[in-house]
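Standup notes
- DV: blocked on the single-chain target, sequence here:
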Amino acid sequence: MKSFLFAAFMLFFVMSCSKDDDPVTIPQCAKPDNVAASNITHESATVSWNSTNASSYTVEFGPSGFALGSGTETDVTDNNLDIANLTANTTYDVYVMANCSSINTSLYTDVYSFTTAAPLVVPQFMPTLSELNLFSGDLANLTPSPYAFVYDLNTPLFSDYAHKHRVIALPPGTTMDYVDDGFPNFPDNTVIAKTFYYFHDERNEALGKQLIETRLLIKIAGEWELGNYKWNEAQTEAVLDNTTGTVPISYINANGDTQNVNYIIPSANDCFSCHSNNNIVTPIGPKLRTLNFDNQLQNFIAEGHLGNLSDPNTVTVLPNWEDDTYTLEERARAYFDVNCAHCHSDGGYCQFQTLLRLTYETPFEDSYINESKDQIDARMATYNPPYTMPLIGTTMVHDEGYSLIRSYLQTLE
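- DV (later): unblocked, structure below
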């Protein structure tokens, strides 16, 4: 009997121990999915994924193509991660792993990639133009940064038949705001750039162009500052240089004629002579009335560049001097306004040298155009520094412009 009880006890003991030693199956920790990136800037992004009720997640990221284990690794308890100190214009790979316990983790997700935004425009006079991040890609293509936009003028300034590429860069989240038909209110750290160039052959622009200079205005602490960048011969970079210089240019015009120009790059002091009013630096071209053509102002409003204005039709239009649907007087006064009025105005360079006032809005009887018509004609008819007008910015007579002004002056009595 004792033997039987002992045998029964041993069988029960073995069976009990065997049951305790059976392996316990733990469910595999679920792998996260739907990895996504949001709030992407030039230096940061937020990465998120679907929650799996894990106690934590391991995120590993790095420049695209990095090997797992060599990236930056971070553990978080939420299902998102704010990543900072990234490099602009760079693609990053991200992997996420769920941690259900110290011994139970999921597999990593498949790779998810995102690309940071372009670098912000630098509102400072850096040694080279490329350092301002004003243009994207190949610098010579003058492709504006995503933070900049191209603008044009209905009546532009004459500069020895050079073409001009005009760009404005506003700080992110800001607008230039309507005040009146003149200049808008530009926020601090606005950059205005104008690049001067000639096509090699104006009959075929695909043959390329020669970039000469990029002039900049930057608004710093409420005041505009001037700087000039000269392009190198290879057309790969422009260097800050506020001294004057001469660049020999040869190009073929639209009529097939070879034109030679000794293009003069002005010094900073020369630029100040025109870009100042009451000794305060100011832009010349981008007045709203000069920008108000071809739906340009409406496009600026729609794209978030221009604020405090809902109806561009309330802004007057400075006539295009080449548009003969305007009267001869309107065209001539518009030409005077853009080419001459920055000096021939109250506060301008010629304020005390002459009574001549050439802003478009100046009434004719107050402009002294009629009283000065013979002098205007004589000083525009030939290029004879320092007698010729304009004093700086050209090395030749603008034949078409002079013809317009002469025709207008001949109508005056």
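- Follow-up: Residues 2 and 8 are 10 Å apart (CA to CA).
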